[in-house]
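To the team - zinc ion complex, inputs and output below.
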Amino acid sequence: MSQTHSHDGWPQPYRLPDAEPYWQALERQQLKYQRCSHCQLAVWPAHSYCPHCDSPALAWQVSTGRGTVYSFSTVMRGPTPVWQAIAPYTVGFVQMEEGHFLFAQIEGRAEAIRIDSPVHARFVRRGAQTLPVFTIEH
Ligand SMILES: [Zn+2]
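Output:
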């Protein structure tokens, strides 16, 4: 499946074959990522070969779901009705404890979100897909 489609109005993500274990783990409310067994670095997005050292020895691991805000942007006007219904909302890159980056929605009042804010993942149903959303820790 390489085409974006919508379900209940929510845009559905691309599910590339390399990342299929990630999508399946989300259904069990787990956040997975790859780690290279050769150079030990976290690898994300999912690959067939390590982008750091070219090793094919990539293993799936479960993330703690914790990280910090690396960058963010608050959207005041949603592009489609489902997004407009939750606007304003914030999206951005989260640097995970394991070292990789995820792009996701970041919950919380826009004024409360800062670069380096600690966040943790929770799981939400969006159409046919379970997705991680990050929440600011207090
Ligand atoms: Zn490697």
